[in-house]
Design brief:
Blueprint (H helix, E strand, L loop, with lengths): L6 E3 L5 E3 L3 E2 L5 H14 L3 E3 L7 H10 L5 E6 L8 H15 L4 E6 L8 H13 L4 E7 L3 H11 L5 E5 L7 H10 L2 E5 L11 H10 L3 H11 L3 E2 L6 H6 L10 H8 L26
Parallel strand pairs: 3-4, 4-5, 5-6, 6-7, 7-8, 8-9, 9-10
Antiparallel strand pairs: 1-2
Helix pairs in contact: 1-2, 2-3, 3-4, 4-5, 7-8
The structure holds nicotinamide-adenine-dinucleotide.
């Protein structure tokens, strides 16, 4: 089978498949089946996190398929004071649970401002990157100021910032900041966690192409150069979300989708008010 998914080059010289498969809120009991279906469909990139508590099942499914998928996982500080040592220990536990030769991308899941803050965790990730178990490092839910602070503090630019991004919440300013800094934008909640799927403008564009709204939205992300990681546990939808390489949105369609951006378009967790769990988020 010819692989239709383009690779995007990150600022550390490595490549990431532009379309991946997300497993947030996927029950561990369902994760193996969902990831296996995705890998059989042709996805070769899976996005998990320690806090999803399904890294073990992701690792098993990836190993069963020949260990060739790109795997991302994430560090979530248990308190509002990220510590370098905690980040290193959490990485070791994620690495063990995944059971793969290496982790392709490790992200700081949410920034916190208190104490030594996320800069200590970022320094820890920078040190981990050299040791063979980890290829690329990045962040998630960081603002322009927070990106500036880690770069100024360590001289190491995150390869990726993974942020909420979909037609109702397009984050144009943050995306411009990423371009200036050479950071790749990765969209979480790329379908607005389902919120955009009934939109009449998107529906009209979908009908014109004989595609679904979900496919149009994913196509929009791909044409903007964004790395995108839709989630589904339904096999037909997993396949539908991969079938996005046989059509192209015209300039006027891209512009019509740009008009759908809303000041109140956020549907997921707001990083500014995110409450840290106060206890370790991952399993033993
Ligand atoms: P999403 O935008 O991918 O939406 C997922 C929901 O859309 C599914 O639950 C399903 O109900 C629906 N859906 C999916 N495909 C569909 C289709 N073809 N037709 C109809 N409905 C469909 O939302 P998400 O899961 O929140 O985000 C994707 C991934 O991003 C996650 O799984 C996770 O890996 C990552 N994520 C990261 C963060 C972060 O803070 N870094 C936060 C949330 C999610």
């Amino acid at each position: 089978m010819i692989d239709p998914v383009p690779d995007i080059e990150l600022n550390d010289g490595t490549q990431i498949p532009q379309l991946g498969f997300g497993v947030y809120q996927v029950d561990p009991a369902e994760t193996g089946q969902a990831v296996s279906t995705a890998l059989q469909t042709g996805y070769r990139h899976v996005d998990t996190a320690a806090s999803y508590r399904n890294e073990r099942q992701v690792g098993e499914a990836v190993r069963a398929a020949g260990d060739s998928a790109y795997v991302t996982t994430k560090y979530l500080s248990p308190t509002d004071d990220h510590g370098a040592q905690d980040a290193k220990e959490a990485f070791a536990r994620s690495f063990d649970r995944l059971g793969l030769d290496r982790v392709d991308l490790y992200l700081i899941h949410f920034p916190v401002e208190a104490g030594d803050g996320y800069t200590a965790a970022w320094r820890a990730l920078s040190e981990l990157r050299g040791d063979g178990r980890l290829r690329s490092i990045g962040v998630s839910n960081f603002t322009p100021q927070q990106l500036g602070r880690v770069v100024d503090d360590t001289g190491v630019t995150p390869a990726i910032n993974q942020i909420e991004l979909h037609p109702y919440f397009q984050q144009a300013e943050l995306r411009r900041e990423h371009v200036e800094r050479g950071i790749t934008t990765e969209a979480w909640g790329p379908l607005g966690q389902g919120a955009v799927l009934d939109d009449p403008v998107l529906r009209e564009i979908a009908e014109a192409h004989g595609k679904t709204v979900s496919q149009v939205v994913l196509r929009w992300h791909l044409q903007l150069g964004i790395v995108v990681i839709p989630k589904s546990v339904t096999p037909s939808r997993i396949r539908e979300n991969f079938d996005v390489f046989d059509f192209r949105l015209a300039e006027d369609e891209m512009r019509a989708i740009e008009q759908l951006d809303r000041p109140d378009g956020r549907v997921g967790i707001d990083p500014h008010t995110f409450a840290f769990p106060k206890e370790r988020v991952d399993e033993e």
